[in-house]
Design goal:
This protein has 96 residues and is α+β, with helices and mostly antiparallel strands. The chain has a domain of 64 residues: Rubrerythrin, domain 2, CATH 2.20.28. It is 20% helix and 23% strand. The chain contains two helices and four strands, in the order ββββαα. A hairpin with a 3-residue loop joins strand 1 and strand 2. 2% of the residues are buried. Bound molecules: zinc ion. Zinc ion binds next to loops.
Length: 96
């Protein structure tokens, strides 16, 4: 679906949502019944963070082509879990 813009001489800008490629050159204004002509304007483009776009693309791709592992990853491949610094409060805690 796409939003198409039309302009009525009496009522101004009208937005109409239709499937892509089905917008006629004119429509009937719902307010006055007159003819509203199609207006072409710049599409709304939003700048999105590259990392967010990559994550969204990965999520979209994983719906159809999920990444499947065939073996257990090597133990050395894992990053060690970061440990909290030993503050005096942590040093007083019981240890296993
Ligand atoms: Zn009108």
């Amino acid at each position: 679906m796409a939003t198409y813009e039309y302009r009525c001489d009496l009522d101004g800008l009208i937005e109409e949502i239709r499937p892509l490629g089905t917008a006629p050159g004119t429509i009937t204004c719902a307010t006055c019944g007159g003819e509203a002509r199609r207006v072409f304007s710049a599409p709304t483009l939003v700048r999105t963070n590259r990392e967010i776009v990559a994550a969204l693309d990965h999520a979209e791709k994983s719906r159809d082509e999920p990444e499947v592992v065939t073996s257990i990853p090597r133990a050395g491949a894992r990053k060690p879990t970061p440990m909290a610094k030993m503050t005096p409060a942590l040093q007083r805690l019981p240890r296993p």
